[in-house]
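hey so i finaly got around to running the thing on Cys-tRNA(Pro)/Cys-tRNA(Cys) deacylase from Pseudobutyrivibrio ruminis. pasting the sequence first so u can double check i didnt mess up the copy paste, my clipboard has been acting weird all day
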Amino acid sequence: MAKKEDKTNVMRLLDQKKIPYEHFSLENADGLSGEEIADKLSENPAQAFKTLVTTGKTGNHYVFVVPVAAELDLKKAASAVSEKSIEMLKQKDLLPLTGYVHGGCSPIGMKKFFTTVIDASAENFDQIYFSAGKVGHQVKIAVEDISKIIKVEYTDIIK
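ok and heres what it spat out for the 3d tokens, dont ask me to read them lol
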């Protein structure tokens, strides 16, 4: 009997909503950057996105999804969510807040919903890659389908 594919919560949520996706996995991905993972999976790094969680001056949390080779512009990001300033969430706070570990954080399936902003460059592609919620696992999903599962905005948030 063939081994059944291990599904992540992200994949289960996409299945529930009947949203098509492709799953990619890479063994021993711990410690690899998003760019290295994209390279090993032969993905266009401009099409591969990472999920960053931040805290605003108000104490609210926000999720930003940016290309793996890009850096989040904190001023643009703060402006996008109407905050005076934002800072990156401390790594130790990521798992309790989102349910995800560093390197395996996905904008889909967090413990609770946070305002989510995806860099406008995603709209240049029909599909993008992002974490499937587990280190070394990614999903490729149509950009237009993302809003069917989470509420997102698209704006320029990178340096």
